Amino acid sequence: MKYVSTRDTSKTFEFKEVFVKGLADDGGLFIPKSLIKFSEDEIKDFKKLNYSDLAKKVIYPFIGNFMSESDLSKIIDKSYSAFRKDNVVELIQIGDRSVLELFHGPTLAFKDIAMQLLGNFYEYYLSNDKQKINIVVATSGDTGAAAIDAIKGKKNLNIFVLHPDNRVSPIQRKLMTTGKFENVFNIAIKGNFDDCQNLVKSMFSDKNFSNQINMSGVNSINWARIIAQSVYYFYSYFLVKHENQPTNFSVPTGNFGDVYAGYLAKKLGLPINKLIVATNQNDILHRAISKGSYQAEKVSETISPSMDIQIASNFERLIFDLNNEDDVKTSQDMKNIKEVGNYLLDNEKLNKINENFLSVRMSEKETLEIISSVYNQYNFVLDPHTAIGYGAFDKHNLIGNNIVLGTAHPSKFPDAIFRAIKANADLPSELMFILDENENYDVIENDVEKVKQHIKDKLL
Length: 460
Hints:
Layout: E1 3-5, E2 8-13, H1 15-21, E3 30-32, H2 40-46, H3 51-59, H4 69-80, E4 90-94, E5 97-101, H5 111-128, E6 133-138, H6 143-151, E7 157-164, H7 170-177, E8 184-189, H8 193-205, H9 207-212, E9 215-216, H10 223-237, E10 247-252, H11 257-267, E11 272-279, H12 284-291, E12 293-295, H13 315-322, H14 327-340, E13 342-344, H15 347-354, E14 357-361, H16 364-378, H17 384-395, E15 401-406, H18 414-421, E16 442-444, H19 448-459
Parallel strand pairs: 5-15, 6-7, 6-9, 7-8, 8-16, 10-11, 10-15, 11-14
Antiparallel strand pairs: 1-2, 1-3, 4-5, 12-13
Helix pairs in contact: 3-4, 3-10, 4-5, 5-6, 5-10, 6-7, 10-11, 16-17, 16-18
């Protein structure tokens, strides 16, 4: 499989380049030049497989000559051995819908599912190529911890994680900052997540700097994460009773990566009906999908911090689709978004979006009410992000099998949970130790030159 950039389809890339680079040199996102599509019979055969074997079937066509099928099989088995569930995820029926728990990995978030795989991909790559790689990643709370756990202690790899100072929950921060590995560096930026993300993008765009430190990225734009996340859409599809009913997914999302993985699964042949983009009050995606206005506003701090985002990086891949894979038009649209801060979708594009996507915005009050209601009715605690996904089905009356992606363990958001149900959601016992550990991170101004200098100083 060959890949192109959303901003220049004239050059093609191998999976190895796509994985290591993360972001194309022209600032675009990598996308397959053409997609495979599984047949109905192939998809029926997938139903017989456990999670790891299904992942091997879905992922292998995307990685080309990066590794053999046998090596991929070993890496997937290794990656998912760290999860608390034998089949990585668990589907729980709560009322008239199901919650797909994706947080049974080492850092209690869905991002572990892709990140454990990426960490082992890097290790495999570096075993054949003796260079050193420095990963720089922005996090709104969960990505950083998942990336650190996947990279910690690995040879020839360093990881620098930028998080917004005082804008992630204490548990989220401690999962990142209490480790004692020499190749892990935490940076708290005086700003919000979009500031962190813009700093990382600026560093990637500075070719002198990014080449000097051999920089790589594992944010949600990395195509390897998208394909890894598409697997659980297939797996959960087979867990529900279909009875010839359509299957819909509600996805709490800020960066459009997790829901785009569902869109990819649909393109690969999985018969998904609708994907609900579930947002908090930082609702740029909801405004784009429901009203056609993709316009950044001021970021609000909420009880669902992983969604406190106003620039959804992966949305560029959808824009590329809406532009009928026109790279010149996509490049111009992205330039306008950066310079003017707005992108308007006409009715034709909105209709095209609504063939696959619906959207919902939830206020803080609504989110707390959903957590409380589900707890009182079913004695089940939802984290704030999953609660937004759960409540989304109340705003769209979709008939069929309705699946909510459960993106994080509720213990990561103790303040919100206590406000909602006047009780605590405890950390799993094997992670309780982090509460008493010392933290290690540096606080730096929202200044790209200061951040670059800090990284270079740590590498000396």
